[in-house]
Amino acid sequence: MLGFHFCKVSGVSMSPRIPENSYVFIVPWLKIFNLKEGSLLKVFHPKYGFIVKTLAQVDRNGLFWLKGHHKDSIAIEKLGPVSKSQIQGKVLWVFPPKA
Amino acid sequence: MFYNIIAKLDKKLNFQMVSGHCDIPCKIYDPIHAQIAALTIIRMVDLLEALKAKPSLTLDEQAEFQRLVNQKEKHGLVVKEEINVIWGDYIKSPQLEKFPELHELVHNIMLAGSQAKQNIDRAKSLHLLALVNRFAEIFWQTKQVSTFTATCPYPPAEQLVYPNLAE
């Protein structure tokens, strides 16, 4: 409704870029622009639900491949590609918890 | 400061959770799943051997035969997957330097897993268990946890390597 929202991140898969329990500021409508590799995205994944991942690559079919940053993060090929309609927004800011 | 403000808003508005999503629960690795799956294969072989001894099978026994074979197949895959995950995700250079046999051991487990799936053969299943036990022994050594071998307190009552966590 406001054109943006906050989400809280669980799991260490995106650390150190997004430490566990960080808040992320998400702007859904920014997905209409060209998404670049390395962008942080909130995605609705059919198997894993709402996840936050980094855009690894856009393939020639226009599908989006996502990756985590931690060594235990689920592998790109296990996540599989997602379509633009599954992207829920772009993460604009990350607010990590105090160290 | 921003974090605290957002955290206060979160308490009131209950923001949606998004998961970073790890492959498995982070840093939780244990070869016991593979060991129990290897034991299950042996148990299935024992039960299949009992059916084999009968001159003919009733319809119920034929159904049981199918279930036993299915379980044997399923647990063969469990052994391979569990070992693969530990090998691929947990085992790194320091462990490989200390235990150079690891690559060959894992490859042998994959081969023995297939053999145990392909045959109703107790010796082949026991060989798989021995390899998985060795893998467990190495795994616990990498965590500086000593191990002991004991007979599992349930069928097929075979030797299993356990971590000595009370030490």
Question: How does this model look, in words?
Answer:
The complex is a heterodimer of chains A (99) and B (167). Chain A has one helix and six strands; from the N terminus they run E-E-E-E-E-H-E. Chain A has one helix at residues 76-79, and strands at 5-10, 23-27, 40-45, 49-58, 64-67, 87-95. A six-stranded antiparallel β-sheet of chain A has the order 1-2-6-3-4-5. In chain A, a hairpin with a 3-residue loop joins strand 3 and strand 4. The longest helix of chain A has 4 residues, at 76-79. Chain A starts with a strand and ends with a strand. In chain B, 25% of the residues are buried. Chain B is 65% helix and 8% strand. With 167 residues, chain B is mainly alpha-helical. In chain B, strands 2-3 form a two-stranded antiparallel sheet. Chain B is extended, with a radius of gyration of 21 Å. Classes of the chains: A mainly beta (99), B mainly alpha (167).
Proportion of beta-strand residues of chain A:
35-45%
Q: How confident is the prediction overall: mean pLDDT of chain A?
A: 87
Strand order of the largest sheet of chain A: 1-2-6-3-4-5
Shape of chain B: extended
Strand content of chain B: 5-15%
Largest sheet of chain B: 2 strands, antiparallel
Distance from first to last alpha carbon of chain A: 33 Å
In terms of structural class, how would the helical and strand content of chain A be classed? mainly beta
- Summarize the amount of helix of chain B as a percent range: 55-70%
Pick out its properties.
heterodimer; A: 99 residues; mainly beta; 6-stranded antiparallel beta sheet; 1 helix; 6 strands; 40% strand; globular; B: 167 residues; mainly alpha; two-stranded antiparallel ribbon; 3 strands; extended
